[in-house]
Amino acid sequence: MNSLSGRFLILTTVFVMLAEVLIFVPSIARFREDFLLNRLERAQIASLALLADDMLADELEAELLANAGVYNVVLRRDEVRQLMLSSPIPDQVAKTYDLRGAGPWVLIRDAMIRFFTPENQVIRVIGQPVRDAGLLIEVTMDSAPLRMAMIDYGLRILGLSFVISIITAFFLFLAVRVVLVRPIKSVVGYMQRYARAPEDARGIISPQSKVTELREAEEALQMLQTDLTQALKQRERLAQLGGAVAKVSHDLRNILTSAQLFTDRIEASDDPLVRRMAPKLVNSITRAVSLCESTLAFGRAEEPAPTLTMVRLRDIAADVASSEALAVDGGCIEIANDVPEDLVVRADPEQMFRVIMNLVRNARQALMISGQPGKITISACEDQDAWVIEVRDTGPGLPPRAQENLFTPFQGGVRKGGSGLGLAISQELVRGHGGELVLTCTGPEGTVFEIRLPRGEMGF
After folding, report:
1. Where does the Histidine kinase domain lie (predicted)?
2. Secondary structure (DSSP) of 400-417
3. What is the predicted pLDDT for the residue at 459?
4. Residue 140: helix, strand or coil by DSSP?
């Protein structure tokens, strides 16, 4: 019974039985009332026989009382209370029930008390005579026959309820199988077939269900499968394109490296025009070589796992600052190392050098493009959870397009001719440390990148 339809069958049976039990209590109360009214009616008929003939034989009177199921009958007519029929009462009257003004809650209460009282008692029942044949009629009787009749009626009600619940559950089971389970199994089948060959568009589900919720699920699955299939195809095309680009970049880098060797001779030329154009040619070739090397580096399957050691971050920042200071070449850009002397972090020194170098280089190039003086600051601090490294510049800020594609390869470049690989590679390296690289702020007042390296065991 682990299937949806099997569990639905059990739940339906249980709830139908519960509903029948709730119906059972007022039904028993109603049955008790009808039983007592029936005894009153029989007693009234017996008393009318006595009125028709004032003198009845004792045997006939006893037979009338036995048929009525009572010990005696009292009929009030014309404000006169008359003992119509009587016989010896075996015990004192234990309880009196007046059916003339009893409400539903009183009837239910009295029925439940009688149902759960096993011993026989003599009870008095008062009711209204049928067809206005008097003011009231009163009888005394045993409670045992009433209780036995209530038990018999209750058993029949429960048995009928069980049969009804089984039949109802069976038809609901069939309905659920047809309306819900079969369409769900069809969706599952589509999912299994698609999982075996997600690139095959023929495995995409075609919504057919007429049930609103199931059709929405099928449409959502169709959209998901369509997008995933297209993404897989695009991934395959990109993988093929990446392989081709890597090969082209490798060969192009070799060609450009050879061309770079001849630029030294060109710079020594006596022709003023050649000497003036040679630096531009050298810069163009250098950028092309750098792009090819970045493309090849990003095209590797993955960066190697970091070798985590405790290193002085200030030393790494100092190496970056000295390397980039050469590119500034006495310009008006200052690179400051504000990392505390005693700050030690857990990181791979080489990879962390590459990350900080990329951030500082991007900041330096942005300042050089703007033509304005500026400052690049490398700072760091630590808290209970992480080491925080900041690279801050006073540059013009990142344009909106660069912010949207900040860490996207080949799209996040800021300067003309840039590949946009620096930040993508940096983010991958920081994630390898278990940390994160985020853009904290950017604008006319400058740009701040933040590196967070976790200190806990989960960081490595």
Report:
1. 247-457
2. HHHHHTTTSTTT---STT
3. 41
4. strand
Nearest to 392 by CA among 445, 457, 323, 454: 445
Beta strands at 333-337 and 309-312: parallel, antiparallel or unpaired: unpaired
User: Which residues lie closer than 8 Å to 333 by C-beta, 6 or more apart?
Assistant: 364, 367, 368, 373, 374, 375, 376
The secondary element (H helix, E strand) that includes residue 225 is: helix 212-267
In a 3-state reduction of DSSP, which class is residue 184?
Answer: helix
Q: What is the pLDDT of residues 72-129, one digit of tens each?
A: 888 776 665 665 667 788 888 888 888 887 888 888 888 888 888 888 999 888 888 7
Separation of alpha carbons 47 and 69, rounded Å: 13
Composition of the chain by helix, strand, coil, percent to 5: 60, 15, 25
Residue among 449, 440, 396, 453 nearest 422 (CA): 449
Name the helix (H) or strand (E) containing 125: strand 122-127
Whether 389 and 453 have beta carbons less than 8 Å apart is answered as: yes
Task: Give the three-state DSSP class for 275.
Answer: helix
Contact status, residue 128 vs residue 136, Cβ threshold 8 Å: yes
Locate tokens 């993404």: which residue? Answer: 231
- φ, ψ for residue 289, nearest 5 deg: -65, -40
* Span 126-183, pLDDT tens digits: 888 776 656 788 888 888 998 999 899 888 888 887 787 778 777 877 877 777 777 7
For 237-248, the pLDDT digits (tens) are 667 666 666 666
Confirm whether pTM is higher than 0.70.
no
Q: Which two tokens stand for residue 234?
A: 């695009």
Judge residue 442's burial from the number of C-beta atoms within 10 Å of its C-beta, 0-12 exposed, 13-18 middle, 19 or more buried.
Answer: buried
User: Using CA atoms, how far apart are residues 50 and 52, in angstroms rounded to an integer?
Assistant: 5
